[in-house]
Amino acid sequence: KLVFVAVAAAFVAFQWRGPTLDPESLKGARVLVTGASTGIGEQIAYQLAGFGAQVVITARREKVLQQVVEKCQGLGAQKALYLAADMGNPSDPERVVKFAVDKLGGLDYLVLNHIGPSPFAMWDGDVEHTRWLMQVNFLSYVQMAKTALPVLEQSKGSIVVVSSLLGKMCSPFAAPYSSTKFALQGFFGTLQHELAMQNSNVSITICVLGLIDTDAAMEKVKGLTNIQASPANEAALHIITSGASRQTESYYPWSCYYISLIRDWFPSYRDYFIRNFYQYEH
Ligand code: NDP
After folding, report:
1. Ligand 1 contact via 39 beta carbon (within 6 Å)
2. In this predicted structure, what is the pLDDT of residue 12?
3. What is the pLDDT of residues 153-178, one digit of tens each?
4. How far is the CA of 35 from the centre of ligand 1 (A)?
5. If you measure from the C-alpha of residue 59 to the centroid of ligand 1, how many angstroms do you get, rounded to a whole number?
6. Cβ(89)–Cβ(114) under 8 Å?
7. CB neighbours (10 Å) of residue 204?
8. What is the mean predicted confidence (pLDDT) over 207-215?
9. Residue 204 predicted with pLDDT over 90
10. Which atom of ligand 1 is nearest to the CA of 221?
11. Is 119's C-beta closer than 6 angstroms to any atom of ligand 1?
């Protein structure tokens, strides 16, 4: 019994401590970050800039990207460039990766983070929105990974996929979004196995996030839940650290790890608690 308790305690302590970051490893690293005009992606760009990385950022709004690039330059990025693109357009994902590889002379990290706007509400039956969101939040990730893989193979690089607890378990108000995150888990989880079986140089990190205090997320959940949100800059550092240390999966905040561990133990209690996190009047 004692051995079991000691092993369990060591396991919990390890998970709590999480991976550590060697900032030197990111100096000059060539990184493409998607969805970097606002929110967590913007914070990832600033932190990478502070570590002296070379960054290409992308999103749709050119003016905002320009401002983020200027700030990255001020923070110490070796190089900071942007390309405006719409991931709802099936030719843009490949175009963005090719731009980054061309301008940076290769690629070390592909950070897939963007999401299209989607209502946080009861599903209204809009199939077209779900189809479009699949292109933006899922298929564009697959397209970018496909284009980047041969380049990352050469640089022993990494793909970092920003996902959500809603890609691991279901909750109300996010059917199209949650579907895209489950799809990411299925696709990139499978790719992790296949790359490992082929002794590939490329690592894939899937980052599972809980509620983060970005403007977009806070606006969506306003009045619907009192779940505590975690800071976006900490989430960004966690994502960078997990990718740089080539973790297969990472959780932020740490409580998400335990939630996803025990999610199938008592399904009816789980579902009762999930529904009670939200305020809804029928
Ligand atoms: P935001 O909504 O703040 O940012 C989304 C980014 O994606 C913006 O830069 C936006 O820029 C860009 N974007 C939107 N539509 C498109 C498009 N069609 N083509 C290209 N880019 C687009 O998101 P967060 O920072 O909150 O979330 C970032 C990641 O973290 C996401 O993967 C999300 O699922 C994950 N996550 C977030 C949580 C949270 O609570 N915030 C919780 C769990 C996971 P622009 O409008 O200029 O195109």
Report:
1. yes
2. 64
3. 999 999 999 999 999 999 999 999 99
4. 5
5. 9
6. no
7. 27
8. 98
9. yes
10. 40
11. no
Q: What is the largest CA-CA distance in the chain?
A: 61
Confidence band for 17, pLDDT divided at 50, 70 and 90: low
Q: Would residue 177 show up in a list of annotated catalytic residues for this protein?
A: yes
- b/e per residue, 29-46, with b = 16+ CB within 10 A? bbbbbbbbbbbbbbbbbb
Examine the predicted complex and report whether its ipTM is higher than 0.85.
yes
Looking at the chain, the whole-number percentage of residues with pLDDT higher than 90 is: 86
Please tell me if the CB atom of residue 217 comes closer than 6 angstroms to any atom of ligand 1: yes
Please tell me what DSSP assigns to residue 88: T
* Joined tokens for residue 158: 């990494």
Rounded Cα–Cα distance for residues 154 and 1 (Å): 48
Per-residue pLDDT tens over the stretch 37-57: 999 999 999 999 999 999 999
> Measured between alpha carbons, how far is 251 from 39 in angstroms, rounded to an integer?
18
The answer to whether the CB of 179 is under 6 A from ligand 1 is no
Domain ranges (residues) in the chain = 22-276
Task: Out of 177, 251, 252, 257, pick the active-site residue.
Answer: 177
- Architecture per CATH, domain 22-276, reads as 3-Layer(aba) Sandwich (3.40)
